[in-house]
Amino acid sequence: MEEAIYQIATELESQRNDSHSHNPISESTLLALQTLLDYTLDKDDPTEMENLSDELSSKNLSLASSLLQPLTSAMDSGGHHSLLASKVYLSLLLTPNFPVLSLFTPMAFLSLLRTIRRSFKNPQSGPPSGNPVKKKRGGRGGGRSKNTSKNVEEEGEEERETVRQFDVRDLFPVLERLHLVLGLIHLGRFPDSLKALVQTVAEIPVTALESCGNSSNYTKLCHLCSQILSELLKSEHGDRSITAAEVLKSLSSLIILPKSQARTFGLTFVVNKMAVMSKDSDEIRKAMVNLPKYLVSKAPEKSEPRALAVESILEIVKSLEYKDQMDFADYVVRMTNSKPQLRLLAVDLIPILITSLKNPLKAISENDGQTGNNTENGYESSWGFKCLQALLQRCSDSTAGIRARALTNLAQLVGFLSGNDESKKGLMKVMGFGEDNGINDVLRERCVDEKAAVRKSALVLMSKLTVLQGDVGGFDEMLLKIMGIACSDQLVSIRKAAISALSETFRKFHDENVIKEWLHSVPRLITDNETSIQEECENLFLELVLDRISRSESNLDNQDLLFSNGILSLLKEICHSEVTPWVKKICTNLGKKKKLKPKIAFSLQNIIKESESMWLSDSKPIDKWTAPAGAWFLLSEVSGFLLKAVDWEFLYHHWQLLDKQETCNGSNEEQEFLEEEGIETSSVDWAGDRVYLLQTISNVSVELPAEPAADLAHNLLKRIEDFSMHSMEVTAHVKALRTLCRQKAKTPEEADSLVIKWVHQLLSKASKTLENYITKHSEINKGTTLLTPATRNTHNNNKSSTTMSRLLSQAVTAVYTIGSLVIVCPLADLKAIVPILHNIITSGISDPKLKKLAKVSVSVKTPPSLYIQAWLTMGKICLADGKLAKRYIPLFVQEMEKSNSAALRNNIVVMMADFCVRYTALVDCYIPNITKCLRDPCELVRRQTFTLLSRLLQRDYVKWRGVLFLRFLLSLVDESEKIRQLADFLFGNILKVKAPLLAYNSFVEAIFVLNDCNAHTGQANSGSSLKESRLFSIRGNDENSRSQRMHIYVSLLKQMAPEHLLATFAKVCAEILASASDGMLKIEDVTSQSVLQDAFQILSCKEIKIPTNKGPTVESTEMEEEAGENAVRGRVITQVVKKGLIQNTIPIFIELKRLLESKNSPLSGSLMECLRILLKDYKNEIDEMLVADKQLQKELIYDIQKYESLKAKSTAAEAVSKGGNGNSVIATSKVTSAVADALAEVTARSVLRDVNQGAGTPSLSAMNVPKLKSTTAGVSKHKGKSAAVLESLRRRQSFELDD
């Protein structure tokens, strides 16, 4: 020890002698001093330290004063040396009987804290002495290069030996001694030191993440930090409220960090340490109460970090007392009316507060702050009720991101609160079902929101609200309809959300409206492009329809329960004409995947049996009974995959029953009984049942016994030969007969021969039936024309009329049967049939050239029913015979255009679609003729045409060329809502993917075509083409016509990418506005004026603007995934292109304005309105242009001011005209005129910013803009430099992109 004391005293004496030196104390001396201090502290024996003090006194040195400066310098030196000095410094302060106040100074303490912070930031420590190692540099001589490299290597090894890697364990003794020192030294007198210590200790868990080798070291380090912070929160260190605030402020940066050990430390210390202290200290409690509010202001904007911040805030709030929790809830409610960032955070905080804290919907007692019993107004006084109200208000926030989050969080709370009856009552009161501005009104608006994320969230909320809707008397029909429409949304995520919401409603409600909406909206998605949606559609149909019907078997004994479950309504809606195609496809897919269970077939059979027994139990005639609608249809679809689940005895019984119904007309007593009972009879119902029964028999024909199958086949053939069935039964009989022949034949050849045999037999009888009717019909008409009215016999006429009616019915059925036979057997001989059918279909054609296609002609007009059926059968024959089709397709086209029968036009459109698939080249030239049916007066024909052409286009049988696309546009504004929905889906979903450039390439042409203007072609329409152009245009400047055209334009603009929007802007300016200013587009023409009017509206509409992102807003953080690609493309477009475009556009506007003013055209107002909007939307680009031309700026300001003044005066004049007359009106008009002038001046000045005064105005030729010719030279002259410049402008703005 004496040697250590001597070394320490010697170095301190040398430090005193060199008064200008501030060198740190050496490491060896520090080690010696630490040895003395350790001995003193361990043995609690201050003898050695007293000896050191005496030794220094003998040399006129004070222990505290002589050590302070060298230790401070050592702590500032860095590396391991500074850590050792810090340890010695703290050990001195802990030494008994040591003059602590002489050694402790704020500057030395700050040096200590810097050492701790620097240890983590610079993990490699330097040489022990603190002096850097000098590196030797080798010479440049070639002979010394070898020695130089050797010396460098040796130096590197030396340096690596002197550098020590920082070990976090070296810091543990320092922090332990620091904690002990705080028990001796109170920092209340040193606020700066206290603050610095808090900040340093709070930073350690963050900076030490990379330095700690294992979790145990980090855990111990955090424990030491926690002890230090806890010590600082004692009253000995000053005002606890100030200290607590400083500690919480420093830890707040840790708490809002991403998930890490540092965040866990900060949160754990606050919740487990400070929350416990706050119960005994009001000062700490106040700081704790303010911490969540402070974290709210520091919460990050991005979604994931914000979510972690919300979790942290919740943990802290949960540690507070109940009263403080309520105060914070009130603060969150107030946040919902603050700035967007705070509103979004409040929307995220409300659900976790309600789900995590106790009693959200219970009233608060004013006396003790405890929850009390709910009274009538108890819910309104609860904090949870206020939070729910605030969240419901945010569902209509002005920011889309907040609306979406509010709806999503409200859906989460509905699911949470619905589980408790008491909370459910309060929730229903907040929702306000059926009330004005209630949840139903909010959902109606949000489900059609312009933002996809909002629509999706609204649908999620609707699915959750189904639990509550049942308690308020059923689901809102408008919401049902909105969900159904959303199932056809453009975005896949919206469609999925709509399917989920509507299906959840279907699970909870069994009323007819829900069943109808679900069946009309969900099954059709089996044809969706998204595979996952198809699978979801199949699974939902299996669960909600088939499984529900299967479960009904157990309820057959309870008839009321069967009806209450909506099984009969479900079956009835399944056989709706718009639903059956999708049900067939779904059942086929499920059958192929072997997901159909025999129980569904058993249940359907039992439902039919139970219906029959119920009918008989009421003593009603069995021949008037029909099975529940849809039961036979669904059984026919599933039976093909469940052969053994269908009982033959059941089928045979009902076949015999339905077979008798055709011939049984019922007695008079029975008819009277039915009328008294109010029972309606319909032949169509049992005819449909017979069709589905026959299909079922065909499906299970393999399982039929041989003898019953033969009897059935004979019966079917006999019934077909009679030609007395309903047309809807014929095809079913023919297909069933073919199936029985193929199933029971031993070989395929035998089956084909059997089929051909009875097909020819039936064709022969059908031919004779037709000839018989035609002969009788001709004879009666000839006899009628020879007789005078006085010689006619009334009795004979009635008898003849009855006979002809029967023969006509047989003839119609025979013709239909021929078509069914052709489909079954395309190789059948039809030589005798075709001439007869030709005579029938040409009976309504007056053109003799077309009648020469066949030798036979009919001189008498054919009845409409036979005439329509003959066209249908001829179409089926043409599908089987290509040569015949080549001859008759022109006849079909002519009949389609001239027929007065909507049913015939519809049938021919269907046949032409089939021809297009089979004979694509033959029909391609007739596509324009088919598109005329898009403007057919009958809605069914229009919808059928639209649907069929859409399918052909998707399958590439028809191409988007010529007039096809332009004619399809009018379906967007069709009178029928269903057609408009189909058109929106086609343009928004299919074309956007299949032909993304179609809207852009045809946009300008669409403007001319819709206005029936031929200026772009330069040719006048002929008589026939004029009629077609009028048919496919929306002429007129009335409000309705303009709005319809604008709807079409907007629909096309929404399909364009950002670069196409900019190119479309350029094309409209170059091909319409420049043409008008150049005289190519005659502004005197009415259609040309409409084109210009539309162009102005298009250029000023918001859909043509390029979407821009102005920094990280709330909406950008909640960006919808579907809009990501468009946002990226929008950012790629450079401002240089926009600048060039707008600076080329303004001169065109100015030249066109002068032309319109010279013609005194009413379009001047539209031009000025458009120009005003452009000056606002593209303000920066235009300002740069106007800086170079002050004269142009003055002209624009004057023109806009003049236009605004006239507009304000006209508006004021209209308002004044509604008031009284006399002098008061004159005075009012003068005042109004003055006000209008002032407002116009302000408006004009607000459009353009003031430019720097004194800037010179260069000539127009010096500007980099195209020169436009003056209107003084006349509009009719199209030569000279101006026309060339305009033409160059059109060519210059070419934004054509490759596919």
Structure explained in plain terms:
By secondary structure, the protein is mainly alpha-helical. It has 63 helices and two strands. A two-stranded antiparallel ribbon has the order 1-2. The radius of gyration is 46 Å and the shape is elongated. Mean pLDDT is about 75; it is low at about 125-165, about 365-370, about 665-680, about 785-790, about 855-860, about 1110-1135, about 1220-1230 and about 1245-1299.
Short description:
69% of the residues lie in helices and 0% in strands. It is mostly helical and 1299 residues long.
Task: Name the descriptors.
single chain, 1299 residues, mainly alpha, two-stranded antiparallel sheet, 0% strand, disordered C terminus
Average pLDDT level: 77
What is the rounded distance between the termini? 91 Å
Helix fraction bin: 55-70%
How is the biggest beta sheet arranged? 2 strands, antiparallel
Task: Give the amount of beta strand, in percent.
Answer: under 5%
- What is the SS-derived class? mainly alpha
Strand arrangement, largest sheet? 1-2
Round the Cα radius of gyration to an integer and report it: 46 Å
| Overall body shape | elongated
As residue ranges, the low-confidence spans are 125-163, 365-369, 665-682, 785-792, 853-859, 1109-1134, 1220-1229, 1244-1299
The strand count comes to 2
